[in-house]
From TrEMBL:
Location of region: Disordered: 1-35, 278-317
Protein name as it appears in the record: Tat pathway signal sequence
Compositionally biased spans, kind Basic and acidic residues: 1-10, 299-308
Superkingdom per UniProt: Eukaryota
Key words, A-Z: Glycoprotein, Membrane, Transmembrane, Transmembrane helix, Virulence
PANTHER family recorded: TAT PATHWAY SIGNAL SEQUENCE (PTHR33365:SF7), YALI0B05434P (PTHR33365)
Single GO BP term: mycotoxin biosynthetic process
Bias (Polar residues): 285-295
Native source organism of the sequence: Podospora anserina (strain S / ATCC MYA-4624 / DSM 980 / FGSC 10383) (Pleurage anserina)
Residues annotated as signal peptide: none
Length: 317
């Protein structure tokens, strides 16, 4: 058994012999790296903030420049209400219609097509209420244009107006006129009772050709202004053989009332048209250069619907 004398004494190094944090090697170089220099973190965040600020200002200025260039390069005569139209590669440039250049108050509204309060006036059999509704709708068909306005319409030429200016109309008037003609064509015994016997009246062949022209005109217009609203099909108690059609979303429509007021304010009557012929509408032309007013046909006198039309600004030919 070992005695206490045989035990090795415990060695404790002196404090001065412990390795220091800056112990050097034999060449005098420090064996441990010095502590990193102090960095103010607030400066780092300031640099990041100013970098982000400069980037944001650059983007905003770029967008502002692009926006300004687009609208300053857009033709001044175009209405601000007219949208920029997407085009195809074959047709890279779409010309804005004359209506966007004329001083007509063209504004737009959303409208469900089955909520027109005037619908009942235009449905059903011929009657004074229906004839008056069509007459009121077509009031302002013939309107006055200045020379400058016709120049904007592609240097168009039209019949001169007594006292200056020219007589013309808008495309909507021709379409409405065609619809009226088709409606009357559906009721020949009421609107054309003596079409084959009254001298100077249209023949059935003339009338059919006119209606055919109107149908073709409306066909092209429907394709030109193709309505891309979605419609849905539903079975109802009243549609057991064929489903009913519904349009769940509103259309984007020209606000008709202010446009029609503008048209009526520019309305031009037949008497204001300068006509070069010696006879006009079956009557002898007076000594002045103004066309005389036409007389109503017997069937027009029967209903009284056209007697006031010929003195107004509705063109029904």
């Amino acid at each position: 058994m070992m005695s206490s004398l045989d035990e090795k004494p415990h060695y404790t190094p002196l404090l001065s012999q412990l390795p220091s944090n800056h112990q050097r090697d034999h060449d005098g170089e420090s064996l441990t790296p010095p502590p990193p220099p102090y960095v103010d973190e607030s400066l780092i965040w300031k640099r990041r903030f100013y970098t982000l600020l400069v980037s944001s200002v650059t983007v905003i200025l770029s967008l502002t420049a692009a926006f300004t260039y687009h609208y300053t390069s857009y033709p001044k005569s175009y209405s601000s209400t007219c949208p920029i139209l997407p085009t195809t590669g074959d047709n890279p440039e779409v010309k804005i219609p004359f209506l966007k250049i004329a001083p007509a108050p063209v504004t737009y509204t959303n409208k469900f097509m089955n909520t027109d309060p005037d619908t009942s006036k235009f449905l059903g059999e011929p009657r004074p209420e229906l004839d008056k509704a069509w007459h009121d709708l077509l009031d302002g068909t013939l309107i006055y244009f200045s020379e400058d306005e016709l120049k904007k319409a592609g240097n168009a030429v039209s019949i001169s107006r007594e006292g200056g200016g020219y007589v013309g109309g808008l495309g909507v008037s021709h379409s409405l006129h065609c619809l009226k003609r088709i409606k009357q064509y559906l009721h020949p015994t009421y609107y054309y009772p003596d079409i084959s016997t009254t001298p100077g009246n249209e023949t059935w062949s003339d009338l059919t050709s006119h209606v055919d022209h109107c149908l073709e005109s409306l066909r092209q217009l429907v394709l030109c202004t193709a309505d891309t609203n979605v419609y849905t099909l539903h079975w109802t108690d009243h549609s057991t053989l064929k489903p009913s059609v519904k349009v769940p979303q509103p259309n984007v429509c020209v606000d008709w009332k202010p446009l029609h007021r503008w048209m009526k304010g520019r309305g031009v009557g037949f008497r204001e048209m300068v006509h070069p012929a010696s006879h006009h509408f079956g009557q002898k032309k007076p000594s002045s250069s103004v066309a005389s007013e036409p007389t109503a046909t017997p069937e027009e006198e029967k209903s009284g619907k056209e007697a006031e039309v010929v003195t107004g600004s509705e063109y029904d030919s």
